[in-house]
Amino acid sequence: MSTPTGEQKTQQSQDTTSGTASRSPAVSDSAQLDNTQGRTTVADVVVSKIAGMAAHDVSGVHGFGGGASRAWGAMRERIPGARSSTSQGVTVEVGEKQAAIDVVIVVEYGVSIVELARGIRRNVISAVEQMTGLEVVEVNIDVTDLHLPDEDGNHPSQPTRVE
Q: Which of 52, 102, 103, 144 has its CA 20 to 30 A from that of 129?
């Protein structure tokens, strides 16, 4: 894929106003992190939080992280005043112009994992590129568990034997 010339960039911005599809403005030259006026750096934790929030917004995601990570998160939520971590289950590698993101999730039973992964990638890439100007080169999704409806504790799987 070639880099657009100045004339092509002008054409792309004109296409946006006419309603036709064009290249995302998040990765355009106007969103450069380095320019003549200074340099902008984005910390890993910032990208991780953006990616976590974007992935959480996709319907069908029950939770994030592996078993130990989820257990720690559940304990943290019970502490008064503590907040749940938006970056739990999300790891990132951030360079000067690019980012790679890994997301570990628990999926709700009945949800298409293929469609869910597609939606997560779309949301994460869009959010990170729009908010940071970084190019997201990959979003890896690791499905570690499946949440069943009766795992909430509301529906005991076996009746109690004693009262």
A: 144
